[in-house]
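pasting input
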Amino acid sequence: QQQVKQSPQSLIVQKGGISIINCAYENTAFDYFPWYQQFPGKGPALLIAIRPDVSEKKEGRFTISFNKSAKQFSLHIMDSQPGDSATYFCAASRAGANSKLTFGKGITLSVRP
Amino acid sequence: ETGVTQTPRHLVMGMTNKKSLKCEQHLGHNAMYWYKQSAKKPLELMFVYSLEERVENNSVPSRFSPECPNSSHLFLHLHTLQPEDSALYLCASSQASLNANTGELFFGEGSRLTVL
């Protein structure tokens, strides 16, 4: 059973547009939700993260929206740029000793110039 | 050297070979991880060394064996692998805490493994 599911599987957006990537989770004990960004030939890197005590977090052009009742969270990239083209992974974990991140499959974003 | 360094970056091996992947972190972290990345699949956690405890994913075959001689170095020993083991193997480190979520993971660039 996949505990963290991403959609869509791939996304193509024009430069300047809004990219939206969705993530749904199963385990109600999860309380930490990061997004990781991976460029070709590189390892994933933390982009932005949220905890369920807030419904939205914004860092520059990147925003996480969190819906606890629906068990969903999404990444919005405003004014998308070709340099944002990468693979994006959502993940989740629960509090506690040695808690581990559970990752989604990843979604490839292509921003066309 | 900074961050998390993995060697080799590329490895081709036959099914009867024995090889090792190496990871070194220069971040002062106390937890290190091995992940397997295959196309169109979630990142799969293989092994964790954290707070002097080793945790492993029970689905990982015994042909993979980790070694963590100290908090800065991590190895993945490979023997009698199968073609389906071909993947990108990522090492990561973090600062783990007893009472909190896993801290931010810092990944290396990965070792691309091809098993013939």
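fyi Residues 37 and 88 of chain A are 5 Å apart (CA to CA).
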